[in-house]
Design a protein that fits this description.
Blueprint lengths: L3 H10 L4 H10 L7 H11 L3 H10 L8 H18 L6 H20 L4 H6 L2 H7 L13 H19 L7 H27 L16
Helix pairs in contact: 1-6, 1-10, 2-3, 3-5, 5-6, 6-10, 9-10
Protein name: Protein CBG21619
Keywords: Signal
Organism: Caenorhabditis briggsae
């Protein structure tokens, strides 16, 4: 169901990609009163374009195991998000900051202490092996089905992580939190694009505290 390596790259790497942010904004129709927010986002991205353009040219799936690179990407993501600010009125800039903040949360969990487990267990490969068929678009709003499938998916991953000596319980919990946040944020973003409902674009980190 969840192409997790793709989600990981989208949320942790592509969310901080200046090129993709700029392309997204340039291809979005500018609603009345949103020109200044568009301009603000582009101005916040501009100082980081040389680094991120270079990143895009050299990005590979194996990049998720380069902790130095990924921490740099996360720092750029946070810098852009902080520059844009929080008091936003326009859908496009809300979606950009939501992706940046979601990517930041997921990345902080993965590239902290849990990285020892992440790299030794080759977690993206485990995630791919636990993946089942993707959801049909008609099931996008079936939250019960999504939650049930998500629980089975992460249980499959956890069973493999328990076998790896470096995957202590605290590290597994952090990866669990990252995974749940990545999947939730992905579906929130897709629903927003589908129905332009900004209500779901609110990353609530507290709801992952009890996972």
């Amino acid at each position: 169901m969840f192409k997790f390596l793709t989600l990981l790259l989208v949320l942790v790497i592509s969310s901080a990609s200046a090129g993709r942010i700029v392309d997204y904004l340039l291809n979005m129709p500018i609603k009345n009163g949103c020109f200044e927010e568009h301009r603000k986002v582009l101005e916040c991205v501009e100082p980081h374009e040389p680094f991120i353009n270079l990143l895009e040219l050299n990005l590979q799936q194996s990049s998720v195991y380069n902790i130095g690179l990924m921490r740099k990407v996360l720092q750029v993501s946070k810098n852009v998000s902080e520059c844009i600010g929080e008091d936003l009125q326009c859908d496009s800039s809300k979606l950009v900051t939501f992706a940046l903040n979601a990517g930041g949360y997921v990345g902080d969990k993965i590239y902290g202490d849990a990285f020892h487990c992440f790299i030794n267990a080759q977690v993206p490969e485990i995630m791919e092996n636990c993946t089942t068929d993707d959801l049909d678009p008609s099931e996008l709003y079936n939250t019960t089905l999504i939650d049930e499938t998500k629980d089975k998916y992460f249980e499959c991953i956890a069973q493999q992580l328990y076998k790896v000596p470096s995957c202590k319980i605290g590290r597994i919990v952090d990866l669990y939190k990252a995974g749940h946040a990545a999947v939730d944020s992905y579906f929130d973003g897709v629903r927003f694009i589908d129905r332009a409902d900004p209500a779901g674009l609110n990353l609530d980190e507290l709801k992952y505290c009890d996972i």
